[in-house]
Amino acid sequence: MIRRAIVAEKVFDLKSSVVDLVTETDKAVETFIIDSLKSRYPDHRFIGEESVAGGIKHDLTDAPTWIIDPIDGTTNFVHTFPCVAVSIGFSVEKQVRHRMLLSRLTRCKFLHWI
Question: Which of 37, 85, 92, 96 is deepest in the core (most CB within 10 A)?
């Protein structure tokens, strides 16, 4: 999804400032990730950067929670600069247990298991 979209013309909105952008790809990637994880882990909670910015309230609790930034580096993405990644964290009892950065453009993956 990101690989195809980076070369396409992008429509974006502003969130909190002129440098805080959101694209349709951000929203689509977040929905895809959450839907995929929900099908496997229906009892887990989810905090997505774009849904929170859109006004959906999510509180971090002790429950297993996935924290998702669908395009970490949206400004780079909008300007077709390939330094972007999907960032996902996994928290239990309000403590991050795992983190992952995945660049679909450079095919680099960074995992951190705590």
Answer: 85
User: Letter for the amino acid at 96?
Assistant: V
- Quote the CA–CA distance of 33 and 10 in Å, as a whole number: 21
Given a contact cutoff of 8 angstroms between Cβ atoms, the answer to whether 12 and 23 are in contact is: yes
CA torsion angle 31 33 38 44 (round to 10): -110
Q: What span, in angstroms and rounded, lies between the C-alpha atoms of 113 and 54?
A: 30
Query: Other C-beta atoms within 10 Å of 85: how many?
Result: 22
Spatial neighbors of 58 by CB under 8 A, at least 6 apart, are 45, 46, 47, 48, 51, 52
* 50-72 residue pLDDT tens: 988 777 888 899 999 999 999 99
